[in-house]
Each structure stands twice: as C-alpha cells, then as structure tokens.
Design brief:
CATH class: Alpha Beta
Radius of gyration: 15 Å
CATH superfamily: Nucleoside Triphosphate Pyrophosphohydrolase
Helix content: 10-25%
CATH architecture: Alpha-Beta Complex
CATH topology: Nucleoside Triphosphate Pyrophosphohydrolase
Number of strands: 9
Largest sheet: 7 strands, mixed
Structural class: alpha+beta
Length: 165
C-alpha cells in the first residue's frame, strides 16, 4: 500500500467552515471537476509524514505551509490502495497566486512523447458540502473528521457514483 501525507487548510468565512483543496493537473483531469480535487499531499516511504506533508504543500501550491496549531486528522484509506495521513491548520491564504511543480507524462497516451504538466492546476476554498462533491471520495472522511474536531455540525457523505465524472 502506498502512503501519502498532506495538510488540509481551513478557514471560517461568513460563519461557514471552508476548506482549501486542489484540482489535479494533467490532461486526464482537465475537464473533470467532481472527484478531481484533493488535499495537497504526496507520497512518502521512510520520511517523517508531517515533514512530507509540509514539503508537498509547498511543491503543489507554491506556498509555505501555514504556521499554526496542527489538528491531527489521522489516516484514511482511499479506494486506490493508498493511505493518506493528514493534518489540518487554520489559515486564510491567497490562492490566486498558487503554482505547482510539474510532472512528466506520456501524452498523448501511447505516443512515446513526454510532456510536462502541473501536478496541481488550481486551488480554492469551498464549504464542506461543495468540497465533498469535488474531492476524491476517499478523502471525504477527512472533511468529516475536521468538522468533528472543530465541533461543527456537518457530516458530508460520498456523492452518488454516477455523478463523480
């Protein structure tokens, strides 16, 4: 099983909890919205998961990870045989200037040509209901855990499979 670590940034705006999630880059995700967003995260093996989470936040968003009290959200398991270890931190970041590292992908598929694409093509804050519709279904539990730790009366569930893409 692969393991990733990430940071879920949250804020309160107009008395509503909002979370910062990122839209996955590359041509595969370009025209998708539902199920195409994620917390900023990256894989690790022997590294400290929190160190990896901070490093990946900077690589994927081009922003320093926010300082502040970290809330441990524990680990969740996604359907793609990946475990995600996450922390949350309160911050109101300017996401209009985010930029991501790039990844090399064979594109078009089976063409033998490699192109560079941003790993993340945009990031935005969403309320929990909207975030649950956009985020990878396996990560919805992180939204619920955050709401529970903050004492927010919100429980979001996985959208219908037919509406994911």
């Amino acid at each position: 099983m692969k393991t990733s670590a990430g940071i879920l940034v949250y804020r309160t705006k107009d008395n509503q909890l909002e979370v910062l999630i990122a839209h996955m880059g590359s041509p595969w995700w370009a025209k998708k919205d539902k199920g195409a967003w994620s917390i900023p995260k990256g894989e690790y093996t022997d590294e400290n998961p929190l160190d990896t989470a901070k490093k990946e936040f900077k690589e994927e968003l081009g922003l320093e990870p926010p300082a502040g009290e970290l809330i441990d959200l524990g680990e969740i398991r996604q359907n793609n045989n990946k475990a995600v270890r996450a922390w949350a931190v309160k911050a109101d970041l300017d996401v209009s200037k985010t930029f991501s590292n790039t990844v090399a992908i064979e594109w078009p598929p089976s063409s033998g040509k490699t192109q560079e694409f941003p790993e993340i093509d945009r990031a935005a804050y969403f309320n929990l209901d909207t975030a649950a519709k956009k985020i990878i279904p396996g990560q919805i539990e992180l939204l619920n855990r955050l709401a529970g730790k903050l004492g927010v009366e919100a429980r979001v569930s996985v959208p219908e499979q037919s509406s994911l893409f």
